[in-house]
Automatic annotation (TrEMBL):
GO terms for molecular function: ATP binding; GMP synthase activity. This is GMP synthase [glutamine-hydrolyzing]. The chain holds residues 203 to 521 of 521 of the full protein. Pathway: Purine metabolism; GMP biosynthesis; GMP from XMP (L-Gln route): step 1/1. Its EC number is 6.3.5.2. ATP binds at S29, G30, G31, V32, D33, S34, S35. It comes from Rhodothalassium salexigens DSM 2132.
Amino acid sequence: DWTMAAFRDTKIAEIRAQVGDRRVICGLSGGVDSSVAAVLLHEAIGDQLTCVFVDHGLLRAGEAEQVERLFRDHYNIPLIARDASDLFLSALNGVDDPERKRKIIGGLFIDVFQEEAQKVENAGLLAQGTLYPDVIESVSFAGGPSVTIKSHHNVGGLPERLNLELVEPLRELFKDEVRALGRELGLPERMIGRHPFPGPGLAIRIPGPVSADKADILRKADAIYLEEIEKAGLYDAIWQAFAVLLPVKTVGVMGDSRTYDHVCALRAVTAVDGMTADSYPFDHAFLSQVATRIINEVRGINRVVYDVTSKPPGTIEWE
Ligand code: XMP
C-alpha cells in the first residue's frame, strides 16, 4: 500500500530528526500498537532503541515467551524483560475491588518500568504506541461519565515520572491504519490481528481475590478456548474472546466421584471500536466442545457457561 509506505518513510525521517543521537526506551505490552511502534523505531534508529517488557504474572499462556522470541530473537532489538510476577501477585493478595486491582497494577507497573528503564544509560526519550483515538478520548471524555466506569491503565504518568521526552509515532493513526503499517513493516499476521488485551490482564478476569493458582487455571482454560476458536476459523470474526474464572464453586461428577470446583465463563464479542459490543453467536456444538475440553483438561474447573450480555448494558470485561 503506497500510502503506508510513504507514511513509514516520513515517520522514519521524523523520528531520526527528533531523536538525534539520543537513546530511546519503548515499553512493549505484547499488543499490536506497542509492537508496531517498536519495529518502526527500530527501523529508524536501530540499536539506539531499547525495549522494556514487564511481565506482571497476569498475561495469557506463552505471552512473555512470544514477546521475547519476536523482539529479541527475530528482530534483534535490545530487550529488557523483567518477570515481576511475584511482586504483583503479592501486592494483589486479598484484593477484590476491581478499581483497586487496576490502581495497584498500574502503580506497580510504573515503579517496575522505571526501575528497568533506569538501567538504560543516557536514555533521553520514551516511545509510546498512542493512537489517535487515545488522544481524542483523553480530551473528549475528560470529566465525563465514561472514564469513571473503569480507569484504563496505559502507562499514564510514566513520561512525567521518568522525565523523558515522548516519541509517539502512531499518534495520527487509527487501529486499522496501525495494522496496515504493521504489515508494511513485515510484522507477523498473528501479531497484527491480535485481539485487544487489557493492561491489568487476567486480574480483571478473576472476580474476587487473585492468586497465582487461579491465574494458572484461567490461563489453561483461556488457551483451550482460543485454540478452538482458531481451529474453527473464527478468530478474525471476533473482536475479543477470553475466559473468566468465577469465584463460585459448584458440584459436578467426574467418573464415580463428586467434584466441587470453579465455574468458568466464556466471553466472545463482536465490536467495531469496543465502545459497544454484541456477544458472538457460536453454535451450541462449538461451545459444548470447548466446555468438554476445558473440564477434561483443566484441573479446578467443572462447569462452563457462556456470557450472552451485550455492551451496553454489560461491559466487555467482567470487572
Ligand atoms: P470494557 O470492559 O470497558 O472494555 O467494555 C472495553 C475495552 O477496553 C479493554 N479494557 C482495558 N484496557 N486497561 C486496558 O488497557 C484496562 O483497565 C481495561 N479495561 C478494559 C477491554 O479489554 C476492551 O477491549
